Each structure stands twice: as C-alpha cells, then as structure tokens.
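Researcher: Here's my situation. A collaborator sent me these components and asked whether they could plausibly form a single complex. I don't have experimental data yet, so a predicted model of the whole assembly would be a useful starting point for our discussion.
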Amino acid sequence: MGKPLILDGKKLSQEIRADIKREIDSLREMGYRSPALAVILVGDDPASHVYVKNKRNACEKVGIKSLFYHLPKNITTEELLELIAELNSRQDVDGILVQLPLPSHINQQEIIMTISPEKDVDGFHPENLGKLMAFLDDGFVPCTPLGIDILLRHYGVELKGKEVVIVGAGFIVGRPLSLLMLWRNATVSVCHIHTRDLREHTLKADVLISATGVPHLIKADMVKEGAVVVDVGISKVDGRIVGDVDFDKVKEKASAITPVPGGVGPMTVSALLMNTLKSFKKRERIHLTSTMNP
Ligand code: NAD
C-alpha cells in the first residue's frame, strides 16, 4: 500500500467551526440572541475537566454561550435533578450537557432521562436514541458517532453496502454508531469483550472503527489491505495519548486512517456545536438544513 489518506479531524473541525461561527454571527446581526449550552461537571476527574474545558472553549470561539456548573463530588441525585429541571425550563438555554461518567452514587440513567429531549445535545436520552433507531432526522445523534459520520462523508468514504466492523459496544460510541452506520446502509458487525475471534471479524472490514480504550488492540494482522481505519480510543500510556490502533504498523495496510490525537476527538466537539446550533435554530424556528442527509 502507498501512503494512506489521513482523515484529518482537526482540519475539518476548523472548517466546520468557521462555518458555525459565520452562521451565528449572521443570526446575531439579524437580531437573534446567542445560542447557549449548559455544561455540568460533577467532581474533579482530571480527564473530564480537560474534556469540559475543550468543549467550553470551542463554544466560546464560535459564539455559543457556555454556562458552566461545577458541582462537588458529593452532590445528591436530587440536587442534580433540580438543577436540570431549572435548565430545562429556561428559555435562554438550548442545550444541556452532563459530563459522563458521574460519581457512582448518582443515578446516571435518571439524570439522562430528566434532560429534556429537546435540549439533549449529547443525544443520550432514550427519545433521541429511539429517533436514531427509527432513522428520524429531527433528533440528536450522539456526538462521537455523528462526528465520525461527518468525517467519513467529508473524505468520500462510501458506506453503502460496505462491511463496517465496530469494535466496542459502549453506550456512548459503539452502540449508537452501529445504528448510524446501518442508517447509512452499511453491513454492520459489532464486536466486544465477549467476541470469540476478534480478528476473524476485523479482517472482513472495509471500514474498521475501534472504540474500546484498549491501547493498540488493533494490530496490522487484523486489518484487511486497503481498509479505512477509524480510531476512537483515547488512553494515556507513559504520559502520551494513544488510540486503540497500532497506528505506525496499521497505516502500512490502510487506505485511510484517523490519527490520535487529531482525528475523532475534535470531530466529537464539532458535532456537539452542530447539535447545539440545531437545537437553537429549532427553538427559534429558524429554517433547518439537515445534518443527516447529504
Ligand atoms: P466503554 O467502556 O463504554 O465501552 C468499551 C467497549 O469496548 C465495551 O463494549 C467492551 O466490551 C469493549 N472492549 C473492551 N476490551 C475489549 C477487547 N479486548 N476486545 C474487544 N472489545 C473490547 O467505553 P466508551 O465510552 O465507548 O469509550 C471507548 C473509548 O473511546 C475510550 O478510550 C474513550 O476514552 C474513547 N472515547 C473517545 C471519544 C473521542 O471523542 N475520541 C469519545 C468518547 C469516547
């Protein structure tokens, strides 16, 4: 194989964010208010802090107001539910994001269920997951799957009729991504920790997407010549951020591949901005152009 195409999520994100900023600037000139995203962080997990900081910075740069609620680790489920109820009712709040994971004493499912589906820009409320399942365009698709889909479409990666193999069946990435890839008419396999022979599956993949958080799980001998490889994993090894894919070896076989960092990560944040703008436009009854149908 020659050099693979690098699926550059950082560069595409810059373009997407410039477009979003332009659109918000022109809406402001027309007299609309700024879109606003409420971000709730519970506790002091260092990785969550970094993710929240990135998301808030990205919001501010495009003209989305970010309202930040940093709550102590020992907050109760009831207190958190009260805050969400208040944010649900506020006219000036378009999106509500609760950074996961939450401390174990908080009922995560109840929190997700309480966020109004109209403001659920993370797309985890069952109503939005149901819309994804039903291939309905007016919900919110979870940010990482949406970001991956936009990245693949931007680079012209065909999905229709292709073998898409997803490694990892987590709630945030693997499971919703499998539905989105099905929506794109791919033939989808989802592998996980109980999959008996992982390599047997990954070798079939025209598009291989790994979202496990196991550093360098995907080796070159698990990848078909010419496959497109998307690495969602983020792990810290010896102080360095690495993905699920053994990039240096796998790039010799892939026709296209995402780097870590600079691939899926920035696309996830861009998808969050897109979902927040979508919510704002829906709430302000501004004409929507579909994010789902090319
Ligand atoms: P999760 O823990 O919910 O799910 C992990 C999945 O991987 C599970 O289905 C598990 O069965 C599977 N798995 C674990 N070890 C495996 C193995 N050896 N073989 C096959 N399957 C295996 O995790 P998640 O929230 O889906 O996140 C997965 C990774 O993606 C993490 O590294 C996370 O940091 C990263 N992530 C990145 C972004 C981004 O924007 N780049 C966004 C979300 C999550």
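Model: Some features of this prediction you could bring to your collaborator: The chain is about 40% helix and 15% strand. The first strand starts at residue 5 and ends at 6.
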